[in-house]
Structures are given as structure tokens and as C-alpha cells.
Amino acid sequence: MNKMDNFDMNLLRVFDAVWRQGHLGRAAEELGLSQPAMSHSLKRLREQLDDPLFLKVRTGMQPSPRAVQLAPIVQSVLSSVRENLLSAPQFDPAQARRTFTIAMSDVGEMAFLPRLLARLAKDAPLIDIRTISAPHRELMDLLERGQVDLVIGFFPDLGGSDVFQQRLFVHGFVCLARKGHPVVKGKLTQKQFREASHVVVQTEGRSQELVEEFLREKGIKRRELLHSPHFLSVPMVIASTDLIVTVPVPVGEVFARIADVQVLVPPYPIPTFDLRQHWHRCQHMDPGNRWLRSIAVELFGR
After folding, report:
1. What is the pairing mode between strands 60-63 and 54-57?
2. CA distance to 37, 215, 233, per residue, from 258 (Å)
3. Is 80 exceeded by the pLDDT of residue 206?
4. What is the mean pLDDT of residues 126-136?
5. Largest CA distance in the chain
6. Which of 188, 297, 166 is nearest to 246 (CA)?
7. Residue 22 has pLDDT above 80, yes or no
8. What global pTM score does this model have?
9. pLDDT surpassing 90 at residue 256
């Protein structure tokens, strides 16, 4: 039989206390044991290691040559248990070297990444960020396998008892038209919306589906001149044509800074949506993940 099968790891604490104290009574007092219990534990340890370990002398307990050899090993084992097993793991963002993988749409990248990266450059210069865009049906698998640390955005299908979520803020939609548009001048009416030609963006992000579903339910017809799977071309298209587009608020704010477009309140009450952060139960207590989630709340929570 393997000796480890019957070895009591608590006996290492007995060894360490006797080694440091050099006295059985003081070692027993340190461990909160009676002297007979301490003597019994030392007897068991001697039997397990087949060595007297500590010999009783006039001044206390004299370690045997084997005990001298074992002392640094025992202290290393106990130290490792205290530091790596019993102590809560720590995360120091200023010193940590780690790559966090965040799943988000291209809309999410526009809204989140500039401020997040600016914060990391200040507080966590050795942290790297990797973003991915994955179909909703794959995200759960990636979370379960620890390949994604955090999912940020509008992911209404991502749920279950193993997925935690936290709302960051509520977003609505805006319409964009070029400055100098021949019809739309600072305000968009329902008539103008229906008669204008539109860009319709169809991406993996689910927020655009809210617009299309609302228009269908209300029976609102419009000319859908351009369908595109990309947001990237939208600001240039809008700025150089008489088309209009409906996009989430943060996207509209970004486009207004980089293109000659006007941001307009939609003439219909298009539903708002929650932007949330999601993480898996396996990451819930991870200090690094907890830190990243706290940064997301601090930067984007409202």
C-alpha cells in the first residue's frame, strides 16, 4: 500500500512546531493540543517515517539527522499550502500579465473599447485584450470552457443557471442623416421617415432586430435601398447620400464625430434595450475576472 494513503498531513504541523520550538510542551501549546495528544501525534509521525526524528534531551527535543534533512521540505510544503491553497488569490492590475477575452459585436467595440483601453493603459499596462465575435449559439460553449472571460452587449439568448449577468445601461436608437439633407433638417417626422430611402444594417448583433421587429409589428413601410452586414461603411454612405439609417445611440454618437451627419430622434417609440455583461459560474470568483467586471461597471454602468 502506498504510504501516502495513510499519511496524515496534520502531522507535518506537529513536526514543524517541535522543530521550531525545540520543546514538546511549547509545541503542544502552539498547536492547542494537550501534551499527551502531542506525544501521541509525534509517535505516529515517527512510525510513519520510521525515524525517531526528535530525541528527548535535558534542554528539550534534539532533532535527528533525518529531521534536519526534512525540516526545510516540511516548511516548504506548509508554506505552499498556506499561500496557494488557504489564502485567497490576489490580483494586482498594475503588475498582472494576462490576456482577457471579451465577446462583443462591432457595435460593442465602438462603444466600449476606446474607454476600456484608455483605462487599462493607466491602471493595468501589462493587461492585453482580445475581442471575438461569435454566434450566440457558440458563446455558451466558449464560456463553459473558459475561452471567453466576459460577454458584453445585447445578448438576450444568453442565460441559464450557470451564467451570471449584470445590466450596465439601457440604450435606445437614433436616426442619422447627412447635414444639408434636402428634406430632413434637424427633426425627422414620421412622414419623412416613411418616404426616405434607408440603409438597413444586418449584423450578428441582436439590437438591430428590435428596430425591424418594431416596424413590422406597427406596419410601418419604408424603402430599404441598401442592406449591409457592416456598420463600418454607414457613416460615409450617410454623409454622401440622402439615405437615413437607424442605429443604437452609442453608434450614432461615434458616427457623428467622424462624419458630417446629424443625429435625430426617431419619430416612432422604438423600444430600448439593456446592455449587459455576462460571465460563467466558473469565472465568478476569479480575482482577475472580478476586477474586469468592476471596471466595466465603473466605466459604463448607469
Report:
1. antiparallel
2. 77, 28, 12
3. no
4. 89
5. 106
6. 188
7. yes
8. 0.67
9. yes
Question: What residue ranges define each of the domains in the chain, with the CATH number in brackets?
Answer: 3-86 (1.10.10.10), 98-170+274-300 (3.40.190.10), 173-271 (3.40.190.10)
| pLDDT for residue 204 | 63
The yes-or-no verdict on residue 46 having pLDDT over 90 is: yes
What helix, strand, coil percent values describe the chain, rounded to 5? Answer: 45, 20, 30
More confident residue, 10 or 188: 188
Relative orientation angle of helices 249-258 and 106-123, to the nearest 10 degrees: 80
**Residue 4 contacts by C-beta under 8 Å, 6 or more apart in sequence?**
none
Residue 136 φ/ψ region, left for φ over 0, alpha for ψ in the -120 to 50 degree band, beta for the rest: alpha
CA distances (Å), origin 212, targets 1, 18, 207: 70, 76, 9
